[in-house]
Design brief:
This protein is α/β, with parallel strands linked by helices and 102 residues long. The chain contains five helices and four strands; from the N terminus they run E-H-E-H-H-E-H-E-H. The chain is globular.
Length: 102
């Protein structure tokens, strides 16, 4: 399989600290896609990781997934069904927890 086989809307999910954001950044360079890191949408900017109101997060999330081209990393399972319904490709990072803690 080639990276381009995943299409223009790629969803990356996996455990914390497994490399989702790093992979998303590498894919954006290769395929000229916009990368969205869900942690940055979920948390208020410059707030030391304070969550934004959930409805606001969903509004931002849905705006991104309705675009034509993207790579999105993060889990946030309550928003996963709508994200997967728009995705043309999925990458699941199946990494053992101990490895992601290194």
């Amino acid at each position: 399989m080639k990276l381009s086989d995943l299409g223009s809307r790629i969803c990356i999910i996996g455990p914390s600290n497994s490399g989702k954001s790093t992979l998303a950044n590498a894919i954006l360079e290769k395929l000229n896609l916009k990368a969205t890191h869900l942690d940055q949408l979920f948390h208020l900017a410059d707030s030391d990781w304070q969550p934004r109101p959930y409805d606001e997060f969903i509004t931002l999330h849905d705006k991104v997934i309705n675009e034509d081209k993207w790579v999105i990393d993060g889990n946030y399972k309550k928003a996963l069904p709508q994200r997967l319904s728009r995705a043309t490709g999925l990458i699941l990072l199946d990494i053992p927890t101990l490895l992601s803690l290194s």
